[in-house]
Amino acid sequence: ADQEIEQEIEATSSSSSKQAISGIILLLVVLTMAIGIPGVSLEMAAIVGALVCVLTGCLTEKQAYASIDWVTIFLFAGMMPVSTAMDKTGAGKMIAEWTVGLMGGSPSPLVVTAVLFILSCALTQFMSNTASAALLCPIGLAISKQLGADPKAVLMAIAVAASCAFASPVGTPPNTLVLGPGGYKFMDYVKCGTGLVIVSFIVSLIVIPIVWPFFPGN
Question: Is pLDDT of 48 > 80?
């Protein structure tokens, strides 16, 4: 019985020391990322931290290997070329121009803002927010000038919508990272994210024209 008690105490002590070491490693990795040491990228800091966890015995090699979320890795590897292809081949631009053409000859600025918001939000579910905004901003700027309206409201709507990547697991890295560990499915993002997109859409159409009027000074 005494031997079992001693083993439990040793196991507890070992577990506590590993927890402390893991906490220190995490702190050092975060500090390295925050400080921005020249020559040390975010990815390199994370990899070094993982290697130190294995070398210090906080994790075994098998545990480290088993903790890799291969679903996330393959999802990133598959969707990044798709988003790049949409940008490089002009598929995204074609979708944008086709959608804008449906608005007719001289739509109201509010309609333009609403349509470009929806289009930017739709594209950013599968492309990066930078690519979506860069694709649509010139179109929004050209339409605004054609209507004689200040382009600030339209451009701001595009920028906000490009960050509303809530409705798919591939629109933004945080969504992708929790896909595997959380056991989520694609439709889970659609169900939860669509409501957030709608709220963002309504709030943007109300607030943006107030802060950035279409016709300032009138």
Answer: yes
